[in-house]
Amino acid sequence: MPMRMVETILEIARWAPSGDNTQPWRFEILDDRRFVVHGFDTRDWCLYDIDGRPSQIALGALLENIAIAGSAHAMKASIVRRADAPDAHPTFDVRLDDAPGMPADPLAPFIAVRSVQRRALRSRPLSAPAKRTLEAAVGPDHSVRWLEGVANRRAVAALMFRTSAVRLTAPEAYEVHRSVIAWNSRFSEDKVPDAAIGLDPITTRLMAFVMRDFGRVRFFNRYLAGTFAPRLQLDVVPSLACAAHFLIVARTAPRTVDDYVAAGRAMQRFWLTVTQEGLQLQPEMAPLIFAAYVRQDRPFTATPSIWRRAKAVGARFQRLVATDAERVVFMGRVGEGAAPNARSLRRPLADLIVARSPGAGFGDGNAEARGYSSVRNRPSMPWASAGEKNSG
Q1: Any residues with CB less than 8 A from the CB of 210 and at least 6 apart, and which?
Q2: What are phi and psi of 245, to 5 degrees?
Q3: Which residue range is the domain that position 15 belongs to?
Q4: Would you say residue 175 lies in a domain?
Q5: What is the pLDDT of residue 49?
């Protein structure tokens, strides 16, 4: 049977990025023009999803995709967040209205092809026109700050090297890291394939062996410099091999769900514009997350030495950004390079659609989320993990 228009739009919109391919959304279709986006986060058991904010950024990317995909069919998406929904479960009512003469957003063709490139990029600087185009993409409520040149790339490489020392040794992150990788794979609908992580084949095989048991992780880290090769390949080389690093900065420090959703929408337009410009991108969000814990004096680990390292990361991040660190909502690297030959896919739309409860109407419906609980219980960390494995 042919897809309904709402399904056609959701089929494209589902390609929004989310940390480690969490896909923290489900769709409740009410009729041909109306549906509900049921969001969730992983803050209860994932140290990287601090206060659910990274998941809210991912939801913003999804909502921007919905608006862009709707424009390709001359339809305007009206999106309203339910004020009574808890922050851990942001819920949005969406209505699609005919908009004759509405131009298709030029970013629409790039939604499904946008991906993460974790390997080395060319260090040739971005052109001035490309930078202006990218800066305009985030809109008036956000701005882009560039970290360019050899000195800045080295500074970011040092920051990322120290950041990975935290996330690759913290016991609290071990189960997360182990669970989100699809071993011996180039593609995965709900995880990150190991071929897309950015490691060479030998290190990948060693990593698969070590991560089977945390005792092995401790042994390799303590006696065999187990984190050195992954940190070098996942953080140092990519940080040096790129055109520039960038920060997306909000006009005012985000505080609410709506603020972080808006940041996600700005981030998605930036990322899609990067793709439109023929460039590649990799998020670098772990320093932001650790710096947020440090600002709030909220230890996320029971290991004092790891918390001390995290505090050093927070201090180094603050020096690097040289601005109000709380206003930085996204960080990454960008440059010219080949498209990745391995990436995260997405769950089929049918798996993301949940049943409508009897009698539920637009604005007051509840959903029986088939498969929802099992997905929520899978440890995953939005926007950052070993090797910054943001979904492709």
Answers
A1: 216, 217, 220, 226
A2: -100, 160
A3: 5-112+342-376
A4: no
A5: 93
What's the CATH number where 18 sits?
Answer: 3.40.109
Specify the pLDDT at position 223: 65
Return the residue matching tokens 């882009």: 144
**Is-contact 156 163, C-beta < 8 A?**
no
CA–CA separation, 74 and 8 (whole Å):
13
Secondary element (H or E) of residue 270: helix 257-276
pLDDT at 145: 97
The answer for residues whose C-beta is within 8 angstroms of residue 225's C-beta and 6 or more apart is none
Task: Enumerate residue ranges in the chain where pLDDT < 50.
Answer: 1, 358-389
Q: Which pTM was predicted?
A: 0.91
Residue 370 covered by a domain: yes
Between vectors from CA 114 to CA 109 and to CA 120, what angle results, nearest 5°? 140
- Tally of structural domains, the chain: 1
Q: Calculate the alpha carbon distances from 41 to 26, 290, 386 in Å.
A: 12, 18, 19
DSSP lists the bridge partners of residue 73 as: none
Six-digit token string for 231: 């940190």
C-alpha distances out from residue 184 to 133, 152, 196, 342, Å: 38, 35, 10, 11
Helix, coil or strand: residue 391: coil
Looking at residue 367, what is its pLDDT?
43
Size of the chain in residues: 392
Burial 250-271 (b: 16+ CB within 10 A, else e): beeebeebebbbbbbbbbbbbb
96 token code pair? 């699609």
Show the CA angle centred on residue 273, arms to residues 268 and 277, nearest 5°.
Answer: 150
Structure tokens, 2? 């042919």
Give kind and range of the element (H or E) at residue 314.
helix 304-321
244-250: strand order across its sheet: 142-148, 244-250, 328-335, 280-283
